[in-house]
Structures are given as C-alpha cells and as structure tokens.
Fold these 4 entries.
Entry 1:
Amino acid sequence: MSAKSLFSAPARRMAIAPYVWMVLFFLLPFGFVVKISLSQTVLAQPPYLPVFDLSGGMAGLRDAFAALSLDNFRALLADHLYVASYLRSVVVAFTSTVLLLVVGYPIAYGMARLPRRWQGVAMMLVIVPFWTSFLIRIYAWMNILQHDGLLNQVLLALHVVSAPVVWLSTDSAMYLGIVYSYLPFMILPLYATLAKLDPMLLEAAADLGVSRANAFWMVTVPLSWRGMFAGALLCFIPIVGEFVIPDLLAGSDAMMIGQTLWLEFFTNKDWPLASALAVVLLGLLLVPLLVYDRVQRRQLEHR
Amino acid sequence: MTNSADTIDKAAAEDTVVVAYPAPLLRIDTVTRRFGAHIAVDGLSLDIQAGEFFALLGPSGCGKTTLLRMLAGFETPDEGRIALNGEDIAAVPPHRRPVNMMFQNYALFPHLNVRDNIGFGLKTAGLTRAGIDERVAEMVALVKLDGLEKRKPDQLSGGQRQRVALARALARHPQLLLLDEPLAALDKKLREETQAELMALQRQLGLTFVIVTHDQDEAMSMADRIGVMKDGRLQQVATPRRLYEAPASRWVAEFVGDINMIEGDIRVRDAHRLTIEGRGVGTLFAVEPREAVSGDEVCLAIRPEKIRLSRRGLAPGLNHSGGMNSVEGVVSDVGYLGGRSIYRLKLDYGGMLRVALANTARLDVDSYGIDERVTAWFTPDDCVVLPR
C-alpha cells in the first residue's frame, strides 16, 4: 500500500514538517556558519568581512563572493594547537564511550533482568538526576572533588591516604564527570535492546550445553550489538563537542575542541576561525553517523 | 496389535510397565512442583522406556510444560526425583544434561545462520572443527535443509525454522529429546506432513521422544503412549487406542474426542451385562467394565461414530429385546463436515444424542434430513460404563 492511500491529505502535508524544521533551524544557520568560516576577521560590527550587502547591487555581491577564501581552514591545519584539540576531543570521547559501555552495560543488564514492575522504578532512578540542572550537578562534583572536599575527607578518615589527593583539574575528574553525565544516554538504548531479548534464547543455549557465562558472550552480547552501537553514538557525538565538563573539571593544559572554539569565539573574537573549527567538527561527526547508517542499512537488507 | 474388544477392555500390559529389566530410560518418581500456592505438578510418577514416543496431553495450565521443563532442567522439582538411566538428574543443570529440547517457538538464535544454529552446542560437546562440520552436514541432510545453511532464521519459512530447531536439538545426539508443542506454529497441511516425518525420524534414529501438546490428534497420530494430564496429575497413561476406546474416567472420556455422556442408574447386574436406566434415553445395555463400578449411579459413554441410524425400526432379534441398544428420536440438527456428518437427535425420552456418520457416497442417499424420524442403535460392546 502506498503512503498516498494510507494517510489523509492533511497528514501527508504534515509529513514535510521535519524537513521545514531542518531547513529553518539547521541548514540555514549552518549556511551562515559556513559563510563566516570563509570570511576574514576584522575589528568591526559584525567582526568579519565580506558582508553581503544588497545595496551594492550585483557588482557588490560579486565582489563579496570573490573575497571569500579558505584561509581559515589552512590556518587550522597549519597550527598544531587545533589538530591537537581535535585529536584530544576524539580520544576523550572514545575513552569516555568505552568507560560508559563498561559501566552502563551491567546496569542496563541488571535492569532488564528485574521483575517487570521494578523495571519502571529503575528507569526512574536513572532519569531522576536529570531533573536537577546539569551545571549544579557538575558544581556538586567540583565540591566533592576539591582539596578539602567530601572525597578527600572520607579517604583521610578511612586512612586510605595520608594527605589530600588532587582530584580536581585532572583528566580523572573530567572522565568521572562525563561518565556520570552521559550514563543515562548509554543505559536507555542498551536497556531497550536487552529488555527485548527473549529469555528463551538463553534457555536454548543452556539446553545446548553452553554455560551461563558463555551464553552471555555467544547470545546476549551479539544480540545487544545494536543497543551498544546506538548508546555509543548517542554519547560519543556530544562528548566530542563537550565544553562545560572539561572546562570545569579538567586541567587547563590540554583543551578539547569545544574549549578551543569558545576561546576563538569569545576571547579572540575570531568568528571566522571559530566557524571553520565548527564546520570541520561537524564533518568529523558525520563519519560515525554514516557508519551507523551503513550498519543499519545492511541489517535491513538481511531481512 | 489385535483388534478384539477383549484387548481393549481386559489386557493392559501395554500400558503399565511392570518389568524390572530393562530399567526405564526415564523414571519420574512422585515429583511435585509448586509456584507459590499453585501446584503445577502434583506427586506425579511416570516411567518412559528407551525408544518410546511419549506424548503429554492436557489442557493449558495442566502442568505438562512444567513437567517437560523439569526434564530439561529449567525447573527443579520441590519433591520427588527424576532419574535418567538410573541416575538422579534433579540437581544437574540444563547444560550438563544429555537431554535436548525443541522449544515451542523454536528459540532459534536470530544472529546466527542455519549452520551456526545447528552447530551451536557442538563446540561444548567436545567436537573438533571438522567434527562439527561433519555433524552439521549430517543434520542438514537429515532434516532436508540442503542449500539453506547460510540463511538467517528470519529468511526461512515456518516449516524450515521448525526443521532447524529439530536439527539443532538432535545435533548433540541426546538420549532424550523433549518437544514442546513442536508443530503448533505450522499450518494444518504442513503439520500433518511433519508429524509423519517426526515419527519416521524417531524410528530411524531409535531415539526417545517426549512431546508436549494440547492437540489430541497430534498426540494420537504420533505417540506410542499418551499421558493425559489435568491439574498437575496424570489422569491416564495408555496407548492412543486404549485412551480413546477405554477411557479411565469421565473426564478423560470427555477430554479425548467427542462422546455422548449419558447419566443413568444400574437396574440389573447380570454376569457380564448391565441394564442401565439412562436419563432421557431409556433402558440401555452395556458390558460390565473390567474394574466393576461400585454403586449404581454410573455414566454410560458412547462415541458418536459407534452409533448407527436407521429409518425403520430394528428387525426382531436385533432390537431391544434381542440385546441391542436402540432409541427413537427425530433429527434436530445436521452438521456437514465433509468426510462425515454429525446428526443431533432429539430422543423421545427427552435426551439428546450425537451421531457421526461417514459420508460414504457422493450423492446424499445416506443422509437424514432435519425432523426425520430415526432409530439410533449401537451394541453393548461399544458402550463404556464409568463412575459418575
């Protein structure tokens, strides 16, 4: 049956809504960003040139187009600071995603094995921290991790350490903050796939002589692959662009791309270079998305 | 098997296992399994011989699946013991039992192809890579799945999936194969073909099959013996024929097949013949059952296909006074089922009687119309007398 006969005319017209949204709030603004990334920085309002001005007529527009250049992108490649930021972002995002998988999988697995009426409660417990402002939660972590914070007090009281440990402004603190903040995004898709897993399959594995531990690796893990992939993607992409957590919890010696972007944009007032950074970042993030799309399409073809 | 009524009513050696040697392959000894206050299996005992095709038949919730799951090891009995080859297996986890199960919805691994599904349990069975390949090829040939080895379960038809499940369960050469409603997901035509194939396979491999089903035709056509379960207890264990022709209780008689159940009182007890006053039916004769019924309040059970109809009254000597059961009535309803028709008679004494007649001729020379007066007759041998 075609979509034409399945949906009424108003419903069909509504189907273009997401496209309108995409054009208005993503493609159009992104077009501006691309344009600014091709401009040159100046001390003016707005702080870049050329400016498209219709009052100059066709000739003025032609001159403005001629003034666009790829200089900012060349600058990105030339300065190792930017390459290092990208690299650090990808490394931090990758490490965090692996940590999130390691921490999130057992939690999601445990949730899926709970009696059905407790699963809703567990889900609430995962989501509830979101009701508090993200910033407040990160500040709370700063409080816990600081020199005379709760963590050091406890460690000292238990005689685990003899002097306060430096937690704040380290990569460990940053990873802790990231894992803490993104855990629900890892748990929920994992839980969704694990809850759908037919327990009969594990019985079948046991019946065929496979122990519980082996059945986990031979049945549960391969069948939750999609959830793992979705969760990883949901975490990896925003972590690459993460700004607040590394800024507040990590040290200042190495920067992630979000921090570099912020620096160029607000401190250096170099909008064109900041825009070029953002365009390249988006290009980088398209890679995992395309991979995900490929994987999903291949699975659909198998049906 | 002999066909005389004698065998059916008197000899029972084929039902009860009395011999000490050979020991049964499987001995279920007063096994009980409770779920909270609900008793799923209640002090059940059963012996199953090696090479037997045994069916557990019962309505849903009767405990048959729980019993099967205890044999597979997914449930543990609260009381009693289960012995396989004389060894108690109650505490043996499922993955250590020489028992395999074919699951109701097959439980095929969706991420593995046919070949890997069948070979799933072979690595742990201690086979080498070459040994696994050989065994899988053997199983694929056995269930006729050649050419489909690379397909995933969702690229197979229902019948093909059923074969994969069977091959997977057989691949480890189990001593006992458990089948949980193995044919329930197939359509009728395919089900009948598969029944025949399962029986042939079981005979060819000399395996012991225990099948759980709620479909009595399936149990009847395949099993050597059937155990009918209700409320966690076995009501009767017998060959399909004995189960049908000599049910042990009113419940079994009504559960298995269609039957007319006539309540009545014994008026006269002769040496071998009972004279019974049937409620709404009149005076009927029946043969005294093997185990005499205590009390005079009984049920007389007669299968619809054991009754014949006639337009005229019976000839003298064949009629009532001659010892034949005959009752008069009018046809109130006819149900045409193709191979046979079911006639509902309104008897002159007030009762109802269902009669099944084979439609032996294409043209309806034999059929009786609604409101037609008929005489229904049947022999005392065809009646089963049961306690009420």
Note: Chain B has two domains: 5-98+174-250, 258-387.
Entry 2:
Amino acid sequence: MVVRVQATAFDYGAESAAFAAGARGAGAVVTFAGLVRDNGGALTGMEIEHYPGMTERALAGIEAEATARWSLDAALIIHRHGPMAPGEMIMMVATAARHRAEAFAAAEFLMDYLKSRAPFWKKEFTADGTDWVAARDADEDALRRW
Amino acid sequence: MTLTVLYFAWLRERIGLPRETVETGAATVADLVAELSAREARYALAFSDLKAVRVALDQDLSDFDAPLAGVREVAFFPPMTGG
C-alpha cells in the first residue's frame, strides 16, 4: 500500500507495470490516470496547491479503507502538486485484487474520495487570468454511493 | 492558547498569508473565525460565506462547532478539488 505526493512527473507505464509485477496473488489490476484538461485549448496551465502532511495522511486513510473493504492485494496512489501543462498527468491510482469487480470498485472509491477529501486545490490559468476550480456538487454526491 | 493557523488556496490569497501564530482564548472554531473576522476586513471577507470554507484540526477534517481545547494546528481552506 503506497501513497506518493510529489511535484515531479511520473511514468504511468512504468508505474503500472511495476505495480502489476508486485501484486502477487492478485488476478486483476485496475489503473486510472487523471490528466490536465485543455478545455478546448483555453487552458494554458494549472497549478495544484496542497497541505503537506495532511495530504499524505488523508490519502493513506482513504487507501487503508479501500484495502480493508475490498481485501485488496495492493493499492497505489500517486498525486502531483505544483505547476502542470495541459495534457500532463496529475495523478494515478492502481488497485490489485483477486477478481476485477473488487479492483474496479476500489479504484472508483479511491477516486471519489480523493477528489473531495484529500487537501488539493486546482488553479487554472487561461488568457483571461486565473481561477480556482470550484468543487462540484456531483463530486460530493458521488461519495454517498459508498 | 497558541495556535498555528494555516490558509490555503483563495483563503490564503484573500487573507494575504499562508500561516500565522494566533494567541486566542476561543473555545470553538466558530469563535476563532469570529475573532479573526473582527480583526480586519480581509479576514471578514475571506470568512463571509462559511458554506464555502472547510476546516481541519491537527490535519483532520472537522467542523465549525468543534472545540479547540488541545488543538495546535487549525487550517482553513475551500472545498477540495483533487483528482
């Protein structure tokens, strides 16, 4: 069970391969990556602020809950902070379980929870200026299904 | 008591600093918010709509009626937008 919070880019392919290779006993691996949207070319960049200390703690808590609920063999969360360009990867999650249903459900759970319970804040840069991304009601609603 | 108070995202920008040390007798988070808001307009503006503000006590999400006894670090920030 691994949580990494970092400013540097990561190699999604290499991370996914290493995760699957280390998930002995699992029959299913699900990986997901979140990218910076370019909003039809309007977005020039993004900056992600976070709360050092609480971020790692919140992510580890969310990961521990997913691991217990779906008996995961392994779980990984990588989340970046700092400046990013459109198309860059912001974060990834990976889950490994005996069967795919557990791996898919746990990955969705991790995503739903880290969107609104891990202390990250996105700021978008466009030609018109900068804007903090507002939290969406749909993201909060998504937590209720768990 | 002495608290470290942290601000993130637009709260940090509106208040104009990322962290400060606050000497306070506030019993709850709401009391602390009232005390800070009474200081200066920039605080009052940042805390004008508490529905748009979240609070963490010693790095755990909490709420505005939570007591501050024993707490060392209070953080104010907007709803989180990770992922």
Note: The two ends of chain A are 21 Å apart (CA to CA).
Entry 3:
Amino acid sequence: MKGAALVLLPLLAAALSLLVGATQLEPGAVAFTLLHPGAPGTLHTIVWQLRLPRVCIAATVGASLALCGALLQGMLRNPLVDPYLTGVSAAAAAAIAISIVAGVSAAASPAIGFVAGLAAALLVAALARRGDGIDSNRLILAGVSLSTLFAAIVTLAVVRAQSTEYASIVVAWLAGSMAGRGWPDLAAAAPYVVAGTLLALSTAAPLNALRIGELRARSIGLNVARAQWVMLAASSLLAASSVVLAGLVGFIGLIVPHLARRIVGSDARVLLPACASIGAALCMCADTICRRIVAPAELPIGVLLAFIGVPTFLYLYLRPATQHGSL
Amino acid sequence: MIELRGVELSVGGRQLLERIDASVAAGEFVAVLGRNGAGKTTLLRAIAGLHRTASGTILIDGRRSDSLHALERAQRIAFVTGDEVFLEALQVRDVVAIGRFAHHRWWQWHAAREDDTAIARALEAVRLEGLAERLFSTLSAGERQRVWIALGLAQETPILLLDEPTSHLDVAVAHEILSLLRGLARNGKSIVCALHDVNEAAEYADRVALLGDGRLLSISAPGALRDGRLLQETYGIAFTRRSALLPLLEHPHV
C-alpha cells in the first residue's frame, strides 16, 4: 500500500505540474501531446519544451536533495544535517555567482559550478580525513567553515557586481529556481545524478549497519571507511547536480528524510527510495505553485519551501516520536 | 579456536600489554579480569580485529586474523559491547537483524529465510521473543544488554567476545546472562568475556585470565584464584576468602 502510494505520488505531482501553469492545459490535450512528440503547435512547445523538462528537473532536484539529506544524516548520525552541510553546494553557488558577475556565458556556468562543487568535496574530504576514514565532527566543521567562506565570496561577488542586472540574476539564482532550465541542462547533469543515485542506493545496508555505532558496525563486517567515502561521493554528486540545476533549494534535503521516516520507518533499504519519491513529488508541487501563485511572474522555490518547510519541520520535529520516530 | 602468540598491544603510543601467549578452544568459556585500564577491552578488540596489534600474531582457526577480510572475520567472531548508542526509532528485531550484515552482499536487499531463522533463534536464546516489536529505546539496561548479545548471536559465529556484559545489571539478570554464555560454550562456542566481578568469573568460566602490570599474569582454572596472591597482584589489594562458604562451593568465593 505504502509502496504503491510512493510510486503514485510523484506521478500525480508530475501530472499536476504539466497541467497547471500560466496557461491551464486540458488533461486530454496534454496526454495526446505526450503520446505524439512530433506533432507541431503551441501546445507541443509548452508541453515538450517548457513544462516537461521543468517537471523532470524539479523531480531530479527534489529526489537528489532528499537522497543526499538522508545519506548524510545517516552517515553522520545527526538528524539536523542537510545536503548543504559539506560545503559542496556553497562552492558551486560561489563559482556560479562569480561566473555570472564576470559575464561568463550562461551555458558555461553550470559546468563551472559543478567542477567547483566537486573540488570543494575533495577539499572537505581531505580536511575531514582521519586514518582510512572520515571523522564526522571534522567533516561538519570543515563543511560549515567552507560554506561560510563561500557564502562570503557570493556576497562579495554581488556587492562588486558591475551592474545591478548581474547582481539581481545572482540573487534570484541563489533563491532557487528552475526558470529557464531545459533539456540540455538536464542532459548535462544526468550522468552525475544517475551515478550519485546508484552509489547512494548501494549504501543502504551500510547505512543500517552504521546505526548501531561505528565500532559495532566494524565488528559486524562493515568497512566503515569505504562506506563513508562512497556516501560522501554520492552526496557530493547529488548536491552539486541539484545546485547546478536549480540553485540553492532549501529544506527538501532536511525535511523529506524526516517525513519519510515517519511514513516508512528508518530502514535505509526502504527509506532511500521513499526519500527520492517524496522529494521529487514535493519539489514538483512546489515548483508548480511557484509558477502559478504570482503568474506571470515566478516565486523563487527556495522562498516558498522556507514558508512551507519551517512550520512543517517544527511540527515534525517537536511532536512526540511515534513507532518509527525520528532518526 | 583463538591463539595469541607474542601479542603486544599499544594505545596512543603507550604499551598496554606485552607478549601475551594464550589460546581459547572451541566450547571454552574464558573470563578476563583486571583493573580498569588493564587492557581487557583492548585485548578483546584486538582479537575481534578492531585494534591493531603492535606485534605478535592472533590466529583464528589457524588463520592470521589480520589476513581475514572484514566480512570473513565477522562470520567467525562476534564482538558484543554495551556502549550506548542513540537508537530511538529501531525495534528490537531490527537491531538484531543488523547482525546478519556479514551474511549478505551489498546488492541483497531482502532478508533470506536463514536470516529470519537466525534472528528468531538469537532472540529466543536471550529470551527476547516477546519484545521483538518493542522500540529499543524503551528497554531497560538489562534488556538492552540482551539485545546486543542477540545481535552477536545472530552473526552465528563460532567465537563470541563480550566486553563487560554484566555491567550496570542487577544480580539476577547478570547471572541469567552468564548462565546463557556458559550454555553457549557447552554447545561449542568459544566465549571470551571481560568481567569485573571476580565471583561471577569464578562461578561461570572454565578458565580465568588475569591482566595486570601490563601483562597476562595467569590463565588458569578458577581454582587457582584460591591463591589470593594472584588476585592481589592483579588488583593491588588484599583478598580474603569467605571460608564459611567454601565447603559449600566448588568454586572459590572471595
């Protein structure tokens, strides 16, 4: 029952997202257009060139952030960790902000952001390394420190921008948005998202093992160091990809793992797919509302998610734990 | 079968134990005694492959412990420690099921029938069948200790190492756990158990190993403890025998 709901949820969200927007579309017409991709016309352009890529990007970003959050929360055994903790996103954001302000071609910005994000992941890993593995406290400290540094770089880039137009582009981009993204952006990020997702799913059993503490996990045969490196690699790929696709989309990576635990429990074998499903659905719904609520303008998704996310998070976290409870 | 040949252990560059030669046979229950910081936990961790030896060799069934793959080692040795962890949302059965990790490949997501059997057997052995659905966080200290032992049993290993399994437990639960361990030894497991209570060790173990002064002072049958000098050397204080009870007890009571 829950499994079927978790499959249907993103499909319903995708259908809603395709139908609702500045122009309302008929379900039959959308279905026909989806089944006839070669058909000409305005409807075809709206569905195939505007909404469908955006729906796919929203689903990808939501699933990536939620998976990344669940992975890092499990790895660091800390329920307050979010995907941006490792500094990967902040580095990608800083690089993209600099490239925008410097007038670099918009097409090149995602690649620059992605490279910076992965470079930051390597730097954080080097700083957090202890013996063969990763020290959780060092990782958090290194990630938070570097995030602060990169945030300062973004601020500097905005303040020193040659024109207010560049500065406003950076600010809008930082607030999180999928406006203007299309198939080429998704195609560029796809290999990294797929790799990150597969790596994340491969760590389900190690994530469960780590719940009983590192020492016990080692004693039952887990190579803790290797598991940590795989988890860090997966979370870095997913976080960098989502930032490149949609900027800084907050709260999904923090809230969705908590929400998923309430629904399916904390067994990582079920939790990780559930996070991907709920994250994708939530992001698609949020993007739909952002497109509709102040149409023809758009609300940044980060702003909307903060308004919904903060009360939801506080409700989930502060109410008494149930059978499945929190982390 | 565990064999230690000239094993030396260090912690943070400081030598803790020097040249330990000992062996534990299948079906044997060995208790390890010593003062706090004598090296009991470190010795158990070294046998479990969780602490590198400074020198010497540890053999598990004739094979060098450090040559065993982590999964292979976990199929031969279970290490039970009572260290607290935050497990708010896990049911007892889920915690015990984690002990089956070494019997799976990473792509095997679903529990096999052997897993269910092993988990049920482990829960039954520690008499936790009735609490299988309970949240771990709601258990008492004694029940939690039994969960950790069940996790070790679910590994289905011939060797079981336990680090102070009776700490924080009342007398009744402590004796229940030690009876269980003795029963497991009778069924063929090698049990090595660090304990604090000399009388518990003397009552339940086949042999008692005494650590002190940075070395293995003695490993012998509990009867050797009647010589108070060994215990005095181990703990640095004088022990007196409860002579009134001695005629009634096969083991020494100090």
Note: The first helix of chain B runs from residue 40 to 47.
Entry 4:
Amino acid sequence: MDLSDVLKSTLLIGPEISLIVAGIVLIVLGSILKKKAGIYVFVLALIGLAVAFGLNIERFGTAETAFGGALALDQYAAYFNVIFLIGALAAIVFSKDYLSATDEFAAEFYALILFSTSGMMILSSSKEFMSLFLGFEIMSISVYVLSAFNRKSARSTEAGIKYLILGGFSSAILLYGIALLYGASGSIYLDEILKSFELTNPLFVAGAALVLIGFIFKIGAFPLHQWVPDVYEGAPMSVTAFMSVGVKAAAFAILLRVIFESFYPIQVSFMPLLWVIAVFTIIVGNVAAIAQSSVKRMLAYSSIAHAGYALIGVVAAYGGQVLAVSSVIYYLFAYTFMNLGAFGVLTYLSRDGKECETFDDLSGLWSKRPFVALSLGIFMFSLAGIPPTIGFFAKYRVFLSAVQAEFYWLAVIGIVGSVISAYYYLRVLVYAFMRTEISPFPSFKVASSIALIVLSIATVALGIFPFDSWDLALKAAGTVLTAARGG
Amino acid sequence: MLGLSSVLGPKRSAKGKLSPYESGIPPTGDTRGRFSIKYYLVGALFILFDVEAVFLFLWAVVFKDLGMLAFIEIIVFLIVILGGYFYVVKKGALDWE
C-alpha cells in the first residue's frame, strides 16, 4: 500500500474521521474552557455528528472498500451507521439537560459518545478480523467509561466495573476465536476464511463458535445476558439509552456480516443453537421484566426480550433469506426510535442526580406534563408492538420472515412474548395516566423536549409511511448476502 | 502436576531467591508502606505514554525504509498524543500538590 492508497482510504472513511477529530477537539476545548465549556462543546459535538451523517449519506448507492479491503463502505454499513448516529445524537441531546448538575466533565462525556460511535461505524463496515476487533474495542471501552460516569454513585461505579470485567472476558473469547480461525485458514479476511472453510476441521468450528459467543455477549442474549440489567440500571440514564440502541445494533451488524460473509458453511448447523438462544432470550427477558419494580430495570429486561425478537430474524435468515436479514436490520432501526424515546422520557424526568426509576416517579405525569405523557404512551405502544407504530411493523416483518422460513413455533413464541410484554409496558401507562402525582416533576427542558417530539413523530410516521427505510434495509441486506449467494 | 513438581523439583534456597521481588533491587522496608494516591495517576499516565513511545522507537529504527507514508502517519499519531498530553496537563493530573 503506498501513500496515495492510504490518502484515498482516509478520505473514504470521512464519517469516522470527523467523529474522532470532533472528539479530540472536544476534550482539548473542554480542558481549556473548563466550566464555561457547556454550550460550546454541545454545539461542537452536534457539528461532528452532522458532518458524519452528511458524509455517511453519500455511502448509499456506492460500494467502496478502504485500506486494502479491510473496511467495506457499503449500503449495509451505511444503514447501520444511520442507526448509530441517531442513537448518538439523541443521547447527546438528552445528556445536555441531564448533565447540567455535573457538567464539569460534559466535554469528556460527549467525546466518549463520539468515540464509541466511531468504533461502531468501524465495526459495522469491517471485513477483516483485526479492524473488527479494533472497532469492537473502541466501542466497548468508551461505553465502559460512560457507564461509570456517575462517579459519586456506587451503582454507576459498580455497573462500570461489572461491564469492564465481563466485557473484557467476552473480548478475550472473541480474540481466541479469531486466533483459531487465523490458525486454521491463514487469513483474517472474512472472504478468505469463507473460501477455506472446512466443516470437518474442528479449528474452524471452534473458532466460529467462540467468535459468535463474543457477539452474543454484546447483544445480551440468553446465556450471557446477566450483565444487562445491572449495567443498564446503574449507568446514567442517557448512557443506557445509547448503549441499549447503539451497542446492540453494532453487535447485530457484525453478527449478521460475519455469519453471512464468513461462517456461511456452518450456518445450517448453528441455526438450531441460535433457535434455542432466541427462544430463551424472549422468555427470560419478558418474564423477568414483569417482576421489576424499577422502570429502568424493566426496560433493561425488555431490551433483552427485544434482542430475542431480532434473533428470530437471524434464525429465519438461515439459507440467506434476504427478507429475513432485512427484517432484522429494520427491527433494529425501529427499536432505535422507540427505545431512545422511552429512555428519553425517563431522562427528562430525572432531576439533579436523582434518576426517575420507580413506577411512582411517573404517577400523575398526564395531568402535569401532558405532552411528555403522550410521547411516553407512543413509545410504550410501539415497544409493545401495537399498530400503527413502527414497533408493530418491525415485529410483523420479523415474525413474517419466521413463518416464511417455516419456523412456526418461533413465530408463536415471539407473539406470545410480545403479548406478555404488553402487560408491563401498559403498566407504565397506568401509572402515568391514571394515578395522581406523588413527587414533583422537574421543570421544562427545551432540548430534550424537541428530541422527544421528533422521536415520537418518527415512531408513528415511520409506522404509517415507511418511506425508503424498508427498501433501503432490503438493499442493505442484499449487499451482505452477495458473498453467501455464491460470490 | 503442580504437586509433583513441588515434590520432585530440586530446592536450592538462597537469600536472594527467598526475598520478595522488587524489580531487582534489595527490598527496603515492609510491603505495607502507603503510597500517595497521586502516584497511581502518574504511574498510569507513564505507562500510557511509555507504550506510545515504543511505537516511535520502532518507527525510528526503520525510518529510511518506510519513507514518506510512515512519516505522515507518525505525525498524525503524534498530534493525537499531544492532544492527550495537553489534556493531561490542563486537567492538572501532573500537579503533585
């Protein structure tokens, strides 16, 4: 690789570079301005995201590779990047009001969100295991720090430590899997591994299994889900919103890419295993969510259940069904809006260090803050999968793909799971709409209100008119399946 | 296996071998001495910048063979490190008092 190649590749990864540069400028600026930095760093973070978003839009329609084929800048990556950028944008906007009490470290907070997002973007476009691992770690380490950001809270610190240690284990397992695959095939490129894949060679099978375990940990699926409730509950509210959307979508992005671009030959033998994982993830997530007395912890368990619904699509994609793959992508897209919204409402209602956690904190919301209560209603209906919200259509497409692939029981379990979930989502609304106020609500917050309005409009409008979002998901699924189809 | 090696293995004790390891210097005092908390911060920063300096060293050895490309890359790398260093100084992490 000579100089012109490197420069060309560097220009191609503009979105990632713009986030990293914005992040570095943020921390330097934050350290100079100290406590006066508040609004400047916020605007700078938004500019960084806007530039990244604009450059990312250009990726739709063109498929380029950068750095000698290490990164594939295709539609698939571009679609997921939109999810990550929306997640980062909403997290930053919600954090602006949330951090007001402790904005000494606001610059670092925004910078870590930007770094983490750039890691996710590298992860979603990586076609080679070294850049994959790099993206994986940039994403994870930033999120470890973010989840311990509330330094004075014992629970936040516990969440950070727990996530760091368990995440470190999962990274080690992933790396071991990569090492085995490299030992067996002599290459770290996904397509080279696909070419030399031998089902009879235990090194390949063990390596693939270990790599998948690493991703399943990040998704928070059944046997490796125990960290999710503790970390999501302890982390600051806006970080939880970002993690539950961004990290999960990034892990699904790379899971699908690795399954279809590299492990395609053993995909059939892994499918029963993923079937079991999907079923147990749905059951465990939904049943545990019923028993929770904290809304935040309930949403954490519900995010496990949602990972299970998305896994239904991964199972149904067996054999390279383009509809099933795109239903997973679309599900994550839909989940972004509704889950950011749900956590956004809780962030809005958190005041000076006290998080809005119990059901009682939401009592009487309708009479005092009708618009917040209304948007909470929209997000809860969407999470429960009730039409005409985006949550309904996303679930419909996932279950449809399961039926088309003749996984009838999987579809039935998924539907039963979402019926159970209606109980605990609607319980939130009972408190918000039918009880009287117990504790006073915080004052009006401008930035968060705008974000909540935009998210609730998007949740309903995209449910009724999907515009291009579904077609683009189909095209994105097409790009990742070309290798599996015989390329 | 661990048990076997402790039973069968030769034991030649010496004063130097039995003393606690302190990076090769003779031990001073007991192990329960307390360090200032600032020591850990400086220690962590030292490790960070030390590892980064290792990359510079490797690059410097093969500077002529790598040419312009590596030079530009190392400049970018250094700018990022300088950003970090600037941050550390501004945040007062190196102020002992």
Note: Residues 3-481 of chain A form one domain.
